[in-house]
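debug: dumping io for the single-chain case to check the tokenizer round-trip. Nothing else runs in this session.
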Amino acid sequence: MTDTALTPSTDQVLDELEDWLHSAWDPDLTVGQWWERLGLAGWSSPILPTHAYGKGLNRNDGVRVAQAITSFGALGAPAGLGLMLAAPTIATHGTQEQIDRYVRAIVTGQQSWCQLFSEPSAGSDLAGIQTRAVLDGDEWVVNGQKVWTSNGQKADMGMLLARTDPEVPKHQGITYFAFAMVQPGVDIRPLREMTGRALFNEVFMTDARVPDDAVIGGLNQGWAAANTTLANERAGLGSGGGNSAGGVAVPGTVGGDLDRRAGDFVAPPPGTSSSGNGRGKTRSSTMLQAMQSDPRLLRELAQRNGASTDPGIRQGLVELYTWGELGRMNGLRMKAAKQAGRDIPGMPNISKLSMSHIMRLSRDLGLRIAGASGMLHSYDPEGREVIVEVTAEPTLPVITEMALLAQAPSIYGGTDQIQRNIIGERVLGLPKEPNHDRTTPFSELPKNV
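debug: decoded output
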């Protein structure tokens, strides 16, 4: 759901934001107090519609707003899947009461969310989920297992897909719930990936409960809400998606940052003295995001170690820059199309494919520039500090972690193969592979076990 009224120009929006920041930003506020100001003023996620604590801006202008907040020296919005996925889905499919209950808590950072979609036997075939929810009075009892749940260990709430009617075709018997993660019967087990981090989790639900009024989009109508979530995920992850918002404070009650000083999570704006410890500018995740869309970090490393004289390296840097510019320009195309009341079918899928390609380019180019030092990697902060001290190269741990991480984007958020299928079938009109999924009850379909 988006606002249909004409929106102000980008310059007007940024001028309004700057005036507001001058009067509202106070580094001595707690994180929770600052996020409440930011969220209720509509600046946490200005791309949300006005009835859902946003300003109805397009995605490109939303990125500009996030960048302006960071440049000002204020703590950015409460980043995470709540703002990126749950809020726009609930704004589209939820009731106003649900918007006031859930989206308000998201934009003010009071709740952190995770995504309970994938299962061990239902990854690319998401509609094949087997987690069951059975109605018991005014609550649903949930049993099943989810996997690849990003930051589930820090989440207050989850976007849960569960099967509520196995006797209809598989896409028709799924319901989308706003599910409380902190409750009896929910067991969260971290999965350590080859970067050394544990961002993903398995989640086991045994007789867990969710109230009936937490159904988003209607009973057995969860597939439509899930597609809204996935579309926002692909647009946000894709090249030109502008995943730049937020500092390093963790939203929600589980993360423990809401009562801490907001100024301690930001770096000072250029030319000013520090009002905090600047942690947001040294986190490797921030640098990884920068490398995905801007080759300057790799270019500067190449200049420092002499690799910039290699014609192949120079060509690779230009190629990486070109792909980043293509993503930016596609974002501008989408902005122009939306303002004209049109759409560009398949653009979120194209952006997701481009992001995967950019990550692979960054991996290969980064290791070529690093040379033999690219074989050095540590799986803990202490070891990374030692590598930096020995090599005198602060970006090296980021480059090696990016090389290990680069395999993931072509899988998470819908595999590259799924993106190509969607483009082929829904944009180009190519025929689907023959199957009976749309007509056969789920209980009669063969299962992956």
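debug: round-trip ok. Residues 122 and 128 are 5 Å apart (CA to CA).
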